[in-house]
Amino acid sequence: MLLLLLGILFLHVAVLVLLFVSTIVSPSLAIPSFPNQVFLPPEWLQSVQATMVLSVIFSVLSLFLFFCQLFTLTKGGRFYITGFFQILAGLCVMSAAAIYTVRHSEWHVNTDYSYGFAYILAWVAFPLALLSGIIYVILRKRE
């Protein structure tokens, strides 16, 4: 049981690290001719950033709830709340990556740009977050 909990905890922390890195690493937006001007990103890019931040918040909340439920849940109980928030974090990542996939060509007119590693990390974090959420829902507390 201890190895199972450590494995689930390792998976959750790995998802959390992937979400942090893919959220924090973003290209700095600047207009080359006016370097001191503030560039407001398009609304769809702001929605991508907001949903990624929401996914990090939901995943951290899920980890906190896991520890709370680990000590307060009765024997035989399931980690429904923890799983719900982790699945919600995975769905936020999916929606952010999907919006970025659809709108990427509008932002980068030049085709020399690639999606970047943060985009790939977000797509890797999506199934892992869903998997850990499903594991939390299935998991029962034992002594």
From TrEMBL:
Alphabetized Pfam families for the sequence:
PMP22_Claudin (PF00822)
**In the UniProt record, does the keyword Thylakoid occur?**
no
Q: Which UniProt keywords apply?
A: Cell membrane, Glycoprotein, Membrane, Transmembrane, Transmembrane helix, Ubl conjugation
A cellular-component GO term for this protein: plasma membrane
Q: Which residues cross the membrane?
A: 46-67, 79-100, 120-139
Instruction: Determine if Glycosyltransferase is one of this entry's keywords.
Output: no
Q: Which domain of life is it from?
A: Eukaryota
Its membrane topology is listed as: Multi-pass membrane protein
Family, similarity comment: Belongs to the PMP-22/EMP/MP20 family.
Q: What is this protein called?
A: Peripheral myelin protein 22
